[in-house]
Amino acid sequence: MIEVKGVHKSFGDLEVLKGIDLTVNRGGVVSIIGASGSGKSTLLYCINAIEKINAGNIIVDGIDVHDKSTDINELRQNLGMVFQQWNSFPHLTVLENAALAPQIVKGFSKEKAQEIAKKELIHVGLGDKLHEYPTRMSGGQQQRLAIARALAMEPPYMLFDEVTSALDPELVGEVLDTLRLLRDDGMTMICVTHEIAFAKEVSDKVAFFHEGLIEEMGTPEQVLGNPQKERTQQFLSKVL
Amino acid sequence: MNLFTPLSWNDAGFILAGILNTVYISLVAIIIGSILGLLVGFIRAESNKSINVLLGGFLDILRSVPLIIQLILFTTFIGAMGYPLNPFVAGSIILSLYTMAFMSEVFRSGFDSVPENMVKAARSLGMTYLQTVRYVRVPIGMRAVFPSWLGVALSVRKDSALVSVIGYMELLRTAEQLISRTQQPLMILLGVGLFYFMISYPLSRYGKYVERKMEI
Question: B72-90 b/e with 16+ CB inside 10 Å = b?
Answer without folding.
Answer: eebbeeeeeeeeeeebbeb
